[in-house]
Structure formats: structure tokens, C-alpha cells
Amino acid sequence: MLAQTSIAAATAVLDYDLLTNNTQAKAERARILVAVGLQGSAAGGDTKIQLMVGQTEVAQIYNLTTGFPNKDAMFTLNYPIGTERIYAKVTDAPATNPINYAHETRP
Asked: Which pLDDT tens digit goes with each residue over 15-49?
């Protein structure tokens, strides 16, 4: 399952969860977090998120470039998450333009 979201820079402030209104953040069945991608804002490397599964930090990820993450821009994780919620908390906010996040899960 692919989950994508695009959040305005004015909304994606420090500690904001990019998955706040995303129904794919939590599931009733066990899953594996296959890959994650972050792009957008004004330039690559100007935005950072803390990727959490429940209370466990899985990764800290910077945006690679502007635009939207595609398959080539995804970081492979293959992290078992069970039924825990996924959080993508902003730790370095985007300067301008939306920040675009995507993750892929599988059962």
C-alpha cells in the first residue's frame, strides 16, 4: 500500500506530524514499512523528519530535492511495524513550498 501526502510549508512547522490526517498511518493488521521518501520545499536537504513507529525512532530523513518522491527517491527500510502507528515528525521545517512525503507498506 502506498501512502502519500503533501503539506504546505506554513503547516509543516517544527514537531508537526506529516501523517496527521493520513489514514495509512495506522492499520488493523501487521505490516512491514518497506520504503519511505521525502521531497519538496525550496532545495534538497532543507527539511528533515524523524520517522517513528509507535515510540521507536526508525530513521531521520532529509528531503532529497524538490518535487514528489517516486520509486527511485525512496529509502528502503523493510522495517516490521506490526499494527503500530507511523509518525513523520518535522524536526527541520521546510523553508518554502510544500513538503511531500510517501511511504510503502506491505502485509
From this structure: 999 999 999 999 999 999 999 999 999 999 999 99
Beta strand ranges found along the chain (DSSP E): 2-7, 31-40, 48-53, 56-62, 75-82, 86-92, 99-106
CATH number of the domain bearing residue 71: 2.60.120
Answer whether 47's CB lies under 8 Å from 63's CB.
yes
Tell me which DSSP letter residue 24 carries.
G
Provide the residue type at 83 as one letter.
T
What sign results for the dihedral spanned by CA atoms 11, 12, 15, 20? positive
How far apart are alpha carbons 11 and 22 in whole angstroms?
15
β-bridge mates for residue 40, sequence order: 99
For the question of whether the overall pTM of this predicted structure is more than 0.90, the answer is yes
How many domains does the chain contain in total? Answer: 1
Residue 25, domain extent: 2-106
| CA 89 – CA 58 distance, rounded (Å) | 12
